[in-house]
Design a protein that fits this description.
heterodimer; A: about 200 residues; alpha/beta; two-stranded antiparallel ribbon; globular; B: about 290 residues; alpha+beta; four-stranded mixed sheet; 18 strands; about 15% helix
């Protein structure tokens, strides 16, 4: 019964992701549990700026940003600015990026992940509701609960760590703009990375 | 190569078990078994066999344009990406380390196939993939030359993406060209490179939020209903098909949905068209501001 319900919900969600969340749209709500067992729901962060980072530690594009220290540095900066950072793993069981919660927690710590919360979205419902396509795929939700940024971490779609320094930090610029209440120059950029390994 | 590793693994695994079961275990054999197991796992985990750089001839004359190619064989279910990879992925590319005066240009791609990685539309290649490379031999060449390259690619299947890197090398000697054992395959790959289309020009404009493409020129009717792909990334919506239709007044047009990531203005657009499966594709280019 639960599975049938999930399938029905999945179909509904899939139908809606054709027009995945564009800047200005209301950010889809979610209720998940993080790796420490804490409840994480978007509604609880009303009034705060929230970052969603789709992650897969098996993906070379994600590893570019962790091995270089770029993503942890951004997570740190976010924390200092009072931004809630939620790392989301939508990999299906058995696919690249998936690990049971305790191993996932260990790996995230090993990679230096400083996200406020790390959630497993194994059935992919949250990922599909946002239209998360690749890892890394970044979303910024402003204090009014609207999507302010949907796109890439930066401007160089490569797996080379060396490109982090010379790329335009699109996501970082957007995050700083949202926090400062300024307009974002590029609110939609093409995210690059490995496809999210959704459950079928 | 993979079969060789598997066989060696089996042999050494048996030897390792046999020896390590005894008190006087020889560490060497255990170590070799571990190494071969690791190698086997690496070869199995990656999506392809080691790429090779092959040439139509190992002997070349000065000033020659030598046809060579990089061949990569992907395992079933895996794909590598085209110059326009689609929604995700990364095109296969190469950088070269060459002696003074030599030139290889860019790694060239052939007509791709469409596939989906999960739900993402992609363009690229599967199975045995050929990337033609045209080597320009300096006019003053004599003796030997060692050419080196670094190939980079991304191989994905539905469950995983694995980046790839491989060293390429080619040893050439000055002399009368002699067809190598791969000459036929190399020439065939070069024969499939897209060719510029002189009889047709392309005009591009925006209309009602979509791209409106129009072909001008005597040969335009040949493009009606043929498969056309964008070599320029992020212009067309990922699932959009480009199909030229012939209007009653003789015009040939196609309307294609815009990519969400297409800029407000378009600088240039390159299209590949397959008019005939047995002939090389045609390539048509458009640049903003140029008259037809």
């Amino acid at each position: 019964m639960k599975k049938l319900l999930s399938i029905c919900m999945l179909s509904l969600v899939s139908a809606f992701t054709a027009h995945a969340v564009e800047p200005g749209a209301k950010a889809p709500g979610f209720h998940l549990t993080d790796l420490q067992g804490r409840a994480v729901s978007l509604a609880a962060f009303k009034g705060k700026v929230v970052v969603l980072e789709w992650v897969n530690f098996g993906c070379p594009f994600v590893m570019k940003h962790y091995a270089s220290g770029n993503m942890p540095a951004l997570q740190q900066e976010a924390a200092e600015l009072g931004v809630v950072w939620i790392a989301v793993n939508s990999s299906a069981e058995g696919k690249q990026g998936y690990l049971p919660s305790d191993q996932m927690a260990e790996l995230a710590k090993k990679q230096g992940c400083k996200a406020t919360h790390f959630v497993m979205d194994t059935d992919g419902l949250v990922g599909r509701s946002y239209g998360a396509k690749v890892t890394p795929h970044m979303f910024i939700i402003n204090a009014d609960g609207k999507v302010a940024y949907n796109g890439a971490i930066d401007s160089k779609p490569t797996v080379e760590q060396g490109d982090v320094k010379t790329a335009e930090p699109w996501f970082k610029n957007a995050m700083l703009a949202v926090v400062a209440g300024k307009a974002i120059e590029q609110a939609t950029t093409k995210p690059y990375g490995c496809g999210v390994k959704y459950a079928k | 190569m993979r079969e060789f590793f598997l066989l060696c693994h089996k042999i050494f695994a048996v030897a390792a078990v046999a020896c390590c079961g005894e008190r006087s275990c020889v560490m060497d054999r255990c170590f070799i078994a571990v190494v071969f197991t690791a190698l086997t796992l690496i070869v199995q985990a990656s999506g392809q066999d080691k790429p090779v750089w092959v040439t139509e001839s190992s002997t070349v004359v000065p000033g020659q344009e030598l046809k060579t190619a990089v061949k990569m064989t992907l395992r079933p279910g895996w794909h590598a990406y085209w110059i326009n990879p689609g929604e995700a992925g990364m095109p296969t590319s190469a950088t070269w380390t060459l002696p003074q005066g030599w030139d290889c240009g860019e790694l060239q791609h052939l007509w791709p196939v469409r596939f989906k990685t999960g739900e993402l539309h992609g363009l690229g290649h599967v199975g045995e993939v050929w990337y033609p490379v045209t080597v320009r031999v300096p006019a003053d060449f004599s003796g030997r030359a060692s050419l080196r390259g670094a190939l980079k690619w991304l191989a994905c299947n539905d469950d995983a993406c694995v980046p790839g890197q491989a060293e390429l090398s080619l040893e050439l000697v000055s002399g009368v060209p002699q067809p190598s054992s791969e000459a036929a395959a190399v020439l065939a790959a070069h024969g499939r490179l897209p060719k510029a289309e002189p009889g047709v020009s392309l005009a591009v404009e925006q209309k009602d939020g979509a791209w409106r493409l129009e072909l001008h020129g005597k040969a335009r009717a040949a493009y009606i209903n043929r498969e056309v792909l964008p070599a320029t990334p992020d212009v067309f919506a990922p699932s959009a098909e480009v199909r030229f239709k012939g209007l009653a007044d003789g015009r040939v047009i196609a309307e294609v949905a815009k990519s969400a990531y297409a800029g407000k203005e378009l600088d240039s657009l390159v299209l590949w068209a397959l008019l005939d499966r047995d002939r090389p594709p045609r390539v048509i280019s458009w640049k903003a501001g140029e008259s037809e």
